[in-house]
Amino acid sequence: MARLDLTGKTALVTGASRGIGRAIAIALAEAGADVAVNYSGSEAAAAETAQAIEALGRRAIVVRANVGKAAEFDAMVQQTLETFGKLDVLVNNAGITRDNLIMRMKEEEFDDVIETNLKGVFNGIKAVTRPMMKQRSGRIINISSVVGILGNAGQANYVAAKAGVIGLTKSASRELASRGITVNAVAPGYIETDMTGKLPKEVQDGIMAQIPLGRMGKPEDVAAVVVYLASDAAAYMTGQTLHVDGGMYM
Amino acid sequence: MSDVYERVKRIVVERLGVEEAEVTSEANFKDDLGADSLDVVELVMELEDEFDLEISDEDAEKITTVGEVVNYIQSHA
């Protein structure tokens, strides 16, 4: 379908060394985009993602940055612009977990998750606003989570950040709509990644019972929706949150 | 009037779609020229490119009229 074609577009995906971010980076490349692959810790894994993109005949660069630090995000966007000449799509995907019950959660555990998962998205939006305003076009796609809507015991920090991402998406979309920039969010449910692989078997079984489609999602299920939002097919959508969760939230 | 003023005027006319005659030195971007906050940010970005200088966010917030922009550029370029 031609309207999903991203040939000639460039994208930056944060947290793209593993899991959902990696699947998004590869799916964008499959649709035709050149991709900057951001990572914070796992350089070798990020290089593998970049190789997969190059194997598809697209350009890729690997950029280390802690998205929670504005200066690092700005430098990463600069590097992407210098390499690719422009930036059409930003996917704010990078995220961490520091799960604990509220009564046991340390202040640092709360702050770390908010810094990466919420402030990191703000830093990203701010960093690309200027080049995208000049281009008069741009797509910003923020990865939220089903728990940002439903809540989740043991994840107060993560849930607060992911709910915050939805509000941030709406505000940014209102500020930037008149400049041809759309800002949307995707809220995945339980997706098979290293992050959810850490959950105990009982917890995973409990989750399965809440999924009408009867299976956990795959990173590619989320990536397909991100490609859609990045494409011309989604030109008339902004400020939205798309739920990719097998029907958990409806 | 200075060359700087003429260049600023040209950009303001293009960016805000106003008449040249309206772009007086006293004209306030928001009140007189119908700019919204984002228009002013864009204008500042374009002036930075045109005059090859950086206008800090703090300074940009203080600029409200055409004359102030011209003065700023003349004292910083």
UniProtKB/TrEMBL annotation, chain A:
<keyword id="KW-0560">Oxidoreductase</keyword>
<comment type="subunit">
    <text>Homotetramer.</text>
</comment>
<comment type="pathway">
    <text>Lipid metabolism; fatty acid biosynthesis.</text>
</comment>
<dbReference type="InterPro" id="IPR020904">
    <property type="entry name" value="Sc_DH/Rdtase_CS"/>
</dbReference>
<dbReference type="GO" id="GO:0004316">
    <property type="term" value="F:3-oxoacyl-[acyl-carrier-protein] reductase (NADPH) activity"/>
</dbReference>
<keyword id="KW-0275">Fatty acid biosynthesis</keyword>
<keyword id="KW-0443">Lipid metabolism</keyword>
<dbReference type="InterPro" id="IPR011284">
    <property type="entry name" value="3oxo_ACP_reduc"/>
</dbReference>
<dbReference type="GO" id="GO:0051287">
    <property type="term" value="F:NAD binding"/>
</dbReference>
<dbReference type="InterPro" id="IPR002347">
    <property type="entry name" value="SDR_fam"/>
</dbReference>
<dbReference type="InterPro" id="IPR050259">
    <property type="entry name" value="SDR"/>
</dbReference>
<keyword id="KW-0276">Fatty acid metabolism</keyword>
<feature type="domain" description="Ketoreductase">
    <location>
        <begin position="9"/>
        <end position="189"/>
    </location>
</feature>
<feature type="binding site">
    <location>
        <position position="191"/>
    </location>
    <ligand>
        <name>NADP(+)</name>
    </ligand>
</feature>
<comment type="function">
    <text>Catalyzes the NADPH-dependent reduction of beta-ketoacyl-ACP substrates to beta-hydroxyacyl-ACP products, the first reductive step in the elongation cycle of fatty acid biosynthesis.</text>
</comment>
<feature type="binding site">
    <location>
        <begin position="158"/>
        <end position="162"/>
    </location>
    <ligand>
        <name>NADP(+)</name>
    </ligand>
</feature>
<feature type="active site" description="Proton acceptor">
    <location>
        <position position="158"/>
    </location>
</feature>
<feature type="binding site">
    <location>
        <begin position="66"/>
        <end position="67"/>
    </location>
    <ligand>
        <name>NADP(+)</name>
    </ligand>
</feature>
<comment type="similarity">
    <text>Belongs to the short-chain dehydrogenases/reductases (SDR) family.</text>
</comment>
<keyword id="KW-0444">Lipid biosynthesis</keyword>
<dbReference type="InterPro" id="IPR036291">
    <property type="entry name" value="NAD(P)-bd_dom_sf"/>
</dbReference>
<dbReference type="Pfam" id="PF13561">
    <property type="entry name" value="adh_short_C2"/>
</dbReference>
TrEMBL record, chain B:
<dbReference type="GO" id="GO:0000036">
    <property type="term" value="F:acyl carrier activity"/>
</dbReference>
<keyword id="KW-0276">Fatty acid metabolism</keyword>
<comment type="pathway">
    <text>Lipid metabolism; fatty acid biosynthesis.</text>
</comment>
<dbReference type="InterPro" id="IPR036736">
    <property type="entry name" value="ACP-like_sf"/>
</dbReference>
<keyword id="KW-0596">Phosphopantetheine</keyword>
<dbReference type="InterPro" id="IPR009081">
    <property type="entry name" value="PP-bd_ACP"/>
</dbReference>
<dbReference type="GO" id="GO:0016020">
    <property type="term" value="C:membrane"/>
</dbReference>
<feature type="domain" description="Carrier">
    <location>
        <begin position="2"/>
        <end position="77"/>
    </location>
</feature>
<dbReference type="InterPro" id="IPR006162">
    <property type="entry name" value="Ppantetheine_attach_site"/>
</dbReference>
<dbReference type="GO" id="GO:0000035">
    <property type="term" value="F:acyl binding"/>
</dbReference>
<keyword id="KW-0597">Phosphoprotein</keyword>
<dbReference type="Pfam" id="PF00550">
    <property type="entry name" value="PP-binding"/>
</dbReference>
<dbReference type="GO" id="GO:0009245">
    <property type="term" value="P:lipid A biosynthetic process"/>
</dbReference>
<keyword id="KW-0275">Fatty acid biosynthesis</keyword>
<keyword id="KW-0443">Lipid metabolism</keyword>
<dbReference type="InterPro" id="IPR003231">
    <property type="entry name" value="ACP"/>
</dbReference>
<comment type="function">
    <text>Carrier of the growing fatty acid chain in fatty acid biosynthesis.</text>
</comment>
<comment type="similarity">
    <text>Belongs to the acyl carrier protein (ACP) family.</text>
</comment>
<keyword id="KW-0444">Lipid biosynthesis</keyword>
<protein>
    <recommendedName>
        <fullName>Acyl carrier protein</fullName>
    </recommendedName>
</protein>
<feature type="modified residue" description="O-(pantetheine 4'-phosphoryl)serine">
    <location>
        <position position="37"/>
    </location>
</feature>
<dbReference type="GO" id="GO:0005829">
    <property type="term" value="C:cytosol"/>
</dbReference>
